[in-house]
UniProtKB/TrEMBL annotation:
This is Pentatricopeptide repeat. The keyword Repeat applies. It comes from Arabidopsis suecica (Swedish thale-cress). The keyword Repeat applies. The lineage of its organism: Eukaryota, Viridiplantae, Streptophyta, Embryophyta, Tracheophyta. It comes from the Eukaryota.
Length: 584
DNA sequence: GTAGGGTTAG
């Protein structure tokens, strides 16, 4: 109709497209008009339309437009690849790549970064390896951007040696390549490697920037290396690197992840600029450190300042309630989310898992189970896992078995679920059932995660496994440990051999309880740490009841503060008392 | 014209 009444020029349609760039409905109308026109420039209008659709994220429609085009140029293929990557549709990307090859269309240097990223998202290593071969065959392996994407892909696949080899063999490594590598190391939990490469970067005289600093602060938070992190931050200041709000947030988070809550609060109060991430970081940090009241007070303050919380803020609030056993408050905050009518605040699976954790931890196991059954979302392993954890704490074998059955069925390769069930049986003295679980794990080939603890000293991170004797100071460490154990026994410490282990791996009988990795790390800290400074120990799994009691005694005996971060939360031991009280 | 890097949660 429109076209008949007033002849539209190409320019007019182009203008219309620009004006409607974010409105899918209008885009569709314009598309219909374009299709009816006989413009020779039809393809250029369709190109513009395709770009807009990719931007809006309507990939189905974008594909339809693409398929209608006659012999689309490589730029258009790339536009579609970009859309698939941005909208996390890796499978579509791979199919498109296959189609491209089948049609004999040659990918160019812009194509590969998108396709490599898609394979990263897809998470299938053999596809990545074969794509790498294509890259080499087409002669694009020397391109810095393609190589950077490949390095990141291998790192995401946990192929550390391939990633490092590829990165090392890059002939020209600019700052972005370094930053990408360091960032992906941190994102994949390889912060010690990130630190190693940060040092290499300095050795190679590559000047870092604020991106590097953020990744490194995040790495130091993961490693619990407050001193190294602060050193890097100070260097950044001295070298006049722009310490924007992202850097400041990362620094705040590092302090909180190192258990340094008081210092973090000072930083937070002094921040010139604060956004929702700053507030959420602080609330989540307080919750992790067991300062639930502070977390909730901050949430109220945030609301009073008229700042909109996001879903992460609520995760912090709910976990604060959970750690403090504040069931009613938790329920109230959860209903606040439900009633908010804000699409961005609709409870997600993680929030449901938090609620299950809150109810379960407080001993309301049946209510937690009912809650799961009534949920409007399909429960995932995180939600069932929270209930299983609660069953382990409260030693509920009947429900524990039921939940573990579901979990082992859906995720047979995750060791911690088997371990939790086995701990429930062990606590009930059902050793035959414990053996059955172990047998099943062997049969399924389920891998146990080895427990380790780490502690920073003299700019280095020292790692300890259980019963570890590989440390150069090993002899002195064991002597120190024996000395402490003797002293605290006199104070009333009794090794808790019947303790309920959380998701730490099963203890072999021959391995002594007294040589758990966190005990070795604490002994190391007592030998080397400065008097008056807290001993910060990081543990990759949850700490056991016995190590918890041990740490309380040691903090009293030595008058040293021990800050222990385990997989879930912090324990601040001061003068024989732990901040986590009975809820952990 | 198109391609690689950062903060809370998981």
């Amino acid at each position: 109709m429109l076209a008949k009444q007033t002849p539209l020029t190409k320019q007019m349609l182009s203008e219309l497209l620009r004006a409607s760039s974010s409105k899918t409905k209008q885009l569709k109308k314009i598309h219909a008009v374009v299709i009816r026109t006989g413009f020779s420039e039809k393809n250029s209008l369709l190109t513009q339309l395709l770009e807009n659709l990719v931007l809006v994220g309507d990939m189905c429609y974008a594909r339809q437009v693409f398929d209608e085009m006659h012999k689309p140029r490589i730029f258009l293929w790339n536009t579609l690849f970009k859309g698939y990557v941005r909208n996390q549709l890796p499978f579509e990307s791979v199919l498109l790549y296959k189609k491209m090859r089948d049609l004999g269309v040659r990918p160019d240097e812009f194509t590969y970064p998108f396709v490599v990223k898609a394979i990263s998202q897809l998470g299938v290593l053999p596809c990545g390896v074969s794509l790498h071969a294509h890259v080499v065959k087409n002669g694009f392996e020397c391109l810095g951007i393609v190589a950077t994407e490949l390095v990141m892909m291998y790192m995401k696949f946990s192929e550390l040696s391939s990633a490092e080899f590829l990165f090392e063999s890059m002939q020209v490594k600019d700052l972005v390549a370094w930053n990408a590598f360091i960032a992906v190391c941190v994102q994949t939990g390889n912060s010690a490697i990130a630190l190693e490469y940060f040092n290499k970067m300095s050795a190679d005289a590559v000047q870092f920037d604020s991106f590097t600093v953020v990744s490194m602060l995040s790495a130091c938070g993961q490693l619990g290396s407050l001193e190294i992190g602060e050193e890097i931050y100070d260097r950044a200041r001295k070298e006049e690197i722009d310490c924007n709000i992202i850097v400041e947030n990362a620094r705040l988070d590092m302090h909180l992840k190192c258990g340094s809550t008081e210092a973090a609060r000072v930083l937070f109060d002094e921040m010139k600029q604060r956004n929702v991430v700053s507030w959420s970081t602080m609330i989540v940090g307080y919750a992790m450190n067991g300062d639930s009241r502070e977390a909730l007070a901050l949430f109220t303050m945030m609301q009073n300042e008229g700042l909109r919380p996001n879903y992460v803020t609520f995760l912090g609030v709910l976990s604060a309630c959970s750690h403090a056993g504040l069931v009613n408050e938790g329920k109230r905050y959860f209903s606040l989310m439900v009633r908010s009518n804000d699409k961005n605040l609709e409870p997600r699976k993680e929030h449901y898992a938090c609620m299950v954790d809150l109810l379960g931890r407080s001993g309301l196991l049946e209510e937690a189970y009912e809650f799961i059954k009534k949920m409007p979302v399909e429960p995932d392993t995180g939600i069932w896992g929270a209930l299983l954890g609660a069953c382990a704490v409260h030693r509920d074998m009947i429900l524990g078995q039921k939940v573990a059955d579901v979990l082992v069925e859906t995720a047979p390769d995750i060791g911690s679920y088997h371990v939790l069930l086995s701990n429930i049986y062990a606590a009930a003295g059902k050793w035959d059932c414990v053996d059955k679980v172990r047998g099943k794990m062997r049969k399924l080939g389920t891998k146990k995660v080895a427990a380790y603890s780490s502690i920073e000293f003299d700019g280095k991170i020292h790692f300890f496994n259980r019963g570890d004797k590989s440390h150069p100071q090993s002899k002195v460490i064991y002597e120190k440990l024996d000395e402490i154990l003797k002293k605290i026994r006199n104070m009333g410490y009794v090794p808790d051999t019947g303790s309920v282990f959380h998701d730490v791996e099963m203890e072999e009988k021959e391995c002594s309880l007294s040589h758990h990795s966190e005990k070795l790390a604490i002994a190391f800290g007592l030998i080397n740490g400065r008097v008056g400074h807290p001993i910060r120990v990081m543990k990759n799994l949850r700490t056991c009841d016995d190590c918890h009691v041990f740490s309380k005694f040691v903090s009293r005996l030595t008058s040293r503060e021990i800050i222990m971060r385990d997989k879930n939360r912090f324990h601040h031991f001061r003068n024989g008392i732990c901040s986590c009280k009975e809820f952990w």
